[in-house]
Amino acid sequence: MTVTVRELRPEIRADVEGFAHVRHLALPFYLVTPDSIAYDVNHAHPDAHYSPLVAVEDGEVIGTAQVGMVYDSPDPGQGYVNVYVRPDRTRRGAGALLVRAAEEHLAAQGATALFAWVLDEPGNHAFAERHGYRASRSAHFLRLDLVDGSLPPLQDLPPGVELRPAADFADDPRPLFTLDAETTSDEPSDVDYEFTDYEAWLESTWRHPLFSPELTSVALVDGRPAAFSAARTDGGTRYGTVMTGTARAFRGRGLAKLAKNDSLHRARAAGFTEAFTGNDAGNGPMLAINKWFGYEICATEVRYVRELG
Question: pTM for the full model?
Answer without folding.
Answer: 0.94
